[in-house]
Design goal:
Layout (H helix, E strand, L loop, with lengths): L4 E4 L5 E4 L9 H8 L3 E5 L4 E6 L2 H4 L4 H9 L13 E5 L5
Antiparallel strand pairs: 1-2, 1-5, 3-4, 4-5
Length: about 90
């Protein structure tokens, strides 16, 4: 994936994004995108999905992010992702 991440919006849009410094996101950057405290969902050894830790209580379900997470077996069937999510290389969050 390199230094490009993808924001998956609750509307289902996929928006490429790059960290401000060009290599890795700050905590503030990802918190602004997901709208609060973050939680990382491991999609595979090199890729994570960054979501709002409290999204299920505060935000709308994100169908596209949920489908990706279920297909990657990162969450169990019946679980779901809410709010905007970021998919990126693990190295892009320090």
């Amino acid at each position: 994936m390199g230094n490009i991440a993808v924001i998956i919006t609750i509307e289902g849009d996929l928006k490429p994004c790059t960290p401000a410094n060009g290599s890795d996101f700050t905590l503030n950057e990802v918190q602004e995108i997901v709208g609060g405290y973050i939680e990382c969902v491991n999609l595979d050894d090199d890729t994570i999905m960054i979501v709002n830790e409290n999204g299920k209580f505060e935000q709308t379900p994100n169908l596209v992010a949920t489908i990706i997470a279920v297909k990657k077996r990162a969450i169990r069937d019946g679980d779901y992702i809410s709010g905007n999510a970021i998919v990126c290389d693990t190295s892009m969050l320090r």
